[in-house]
């Protein structure tokens, strides 16, 4: 018995990946869209801080100290008369630098350790995971405080320290994903046909752990921003007078919060908003990239249709 399709319409040309992702994000993930807007606003504020901020971040006017929000100063001034809105805008630049930079390092370090440890296993995995156990057994904040005290406080120092510490800790997640993927038949087939280690990792393992890396990246951004704010709050992060959300919540915010509530409220709201937006946007992107959540039409969103009922109309010919 032979099955012959009546007529198959050629699939239409696929839209670009970026356009397809944007359309699906808006249609399927409204909370993710809100998160993307929040992240985009803060990202643009960080990039164009020089043009958006009405005043230089460290320009003080002691005559206007602790002024409430007004037309001249949208969010009020601090104890030195510096415009709080301008300092929050410049603080977004610091937070984005550290959040994005450290998260990229998190993904790279976690990917290298997790891929090799999960795929090679054996003695290499045994030794590597003991170092990971040590990193997981010590609270991250303690390690950060110790290393920042040794290396020194600065944007690049904090990015590198957070990137390596977070990457080592996240490698356990990548390793677990690699363990489940390496058991598949197509990996064994690649080994049998003489596929090299780099070929198998690049062709079969890495594409299948992309949803995991997206989750690591998105969660790490929020975590790194909060970690930097915590270090600055403790006086171990970005040194004053550089504008930092954690620094604004620290000495000035705690000292004058009862007299000038805006010193603690507005930096805290900015920190809350950007962390919320990053989490919502990251979860949405993870869902859109996960092949198990794309539905039945496949990755390219193309179904084979017939001219009449939009399905393949088959004739059985005996």
- Radius of gyration, CA atoms, in whole angstroms: 26 Å
Report the structural category: mainly alpha
In one word, what is the shape?
elongated
Mean pLDDT: 79
Molecular structure report:
The longest helix is centred in the N-terminal third of the chain and has 37 residues, at 84-120. The chain is built from 13 helices and two strands, in the order E-H-H-H-H-H-H-H-H-H-H-H-H-H-E. 34% of the residues are buried. Helix 4 (84-120) runs parallel beside helix 7 (155-181) and helix 4 crosses helix 10 (210-233). The protein has helices at 17-28, 30-47, 49-52, 84-120, 122-137, 140-151, 155-181, 185-192, 197-205, 210-233, 245-249, 251-256, 262-289, and strands at residues 2-5, 314-317. The model is unreliable at 295-318 (pLDDT under 50). By secondary structure, it is an all-alpha fold. The chain has a single domain (44-61, 90-295), classed as MetI-like fold (Orthogonal Bundle). Strands 1-2 form a two-stranded antiparallel ribbon.
Secondary-structure blueprint of this entry?
Layout: E1 2-5, H1 17-28, H2 30-47, H3 49-52, H4 84-120, H5 122-137, H6 140-151, H7 155-181, H8 185-192, H9 197-205, H10 210-233, H11 245-249, H12 251-256, H13 262-289, E2 314-317
Antiparallel strand pairs: 1-2
Helix pairs in contact: 2-4, 2-13, 4-5, 4-7, 4-10, 5-7, 6-7, 7-10, 10-13
